[in-house]
Every structure is written in C-alpha cells, then in structure tokens.
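Work Package 3 (structural annotation) set out to generate three-dimensional models for the target panel prioritized at the project kickoff. During this period the team completed the workflow that converts sequence records into discrete structure tokens, so that structures can be stored uniformly alongside our sequence database. As a representative example, we reproduce one entry of 176 residues exactly as it appears in the project archive.
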Amino acid sequence: MQWFWLVCLRVLSFGVLKFRVFVRGVVLKSCVRGKGFSSAHFVVLSGKCERLHGHNYAVECEIEGKQDAEGVVFDFIELKKQLNKTTEQLDHKILLPANSSDIKTTKTKTGKQQSVEARVNEKFYSFPLEDVFFLPAKTVTAEELAKFIHSKTRMPSGKTLLVRVFETKTSWAEYP
C-alpha cells in the first residue's frame, strides 16, 4: 500500500511558523489498516428514503500546529493508531443513525440470533446486530462520519485537526 506524507510550511503574521501535516491514503483498499472502511447505509432526506448502498470510504486528516522539540507536529504512528481504532468499528458494517426521527429501529432476539429491524416509511430492513453500527447522529452522511471520526481523535493542546471522509474520489465532507 502506498502512502504519501506531505508537510506544508506556512509563515503566519508576526513571524510565527505553523505547519500543516497531511496524511492521505492513495489507495482506497486500506480497510485493513484502518485508513478507510467499507460500509453500507441509506439516507432519508425530505421524507424520501434512498436505497441501501455502500461505499469504500477513505479518511484523510490534516493536523495544524507548531513543531515540538523533535521537529514533529504530530506523530503519524499515533494518528494511525487512533484512526484504526475508530474505522475498525465502522468497517464492513451497516451504518444506522442512532438519533433519527425518520428511521425507527428495534432490536429483536430469535433464539441465539439478535437482529436490528429498521423501518422507513414502507421499507423494512432486518440485519444481524453484530453487523450494525449505530452512528450517534440523526442521519448517516459523510459529514456525520467526519464529525464522528473527529470526535474520536485526540489532539494535544495547540494542535487542530481537520477530518475528511471521502465517499468517492470526487465526493467528500470535512469536519470542522
């Protein structure tokens, strides 16, 4: 798998140096390493429910801040560990919104099998519970996924984080 690291130097007013560090996966088949993930979802917008579909999501992060005494803005290894931990929860799952007023979910148990039933208008889905991840949001969009991944990634004081989630090479959302 190929990864590119890019460090951009910017001189801000008052002569203060700040760096932006980009970590970008070039290959979308990075699920194993946690830089991307494959998931299915559907979205209800304006009362209309689109079909269940999936994406091979890619995740990109930018960290901005001053270099530390060792000349590093943020440790890439630590960033990868944090991203892996979060994206592994999402990988090969059906993503359902935990706070939707449009999608009604019910957990059921039949024998040893637990499942989740999701109802939207006239549509009805049933998934094994182990294959579902409830995203703490009203809907499952790239915007909400970026916000979720951002919330799970810890930065030291003085560092700012931007998370991008790509549904395709040309469609993405970023937070904040």
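Residues 76-90 form the longest helix (15 residues).
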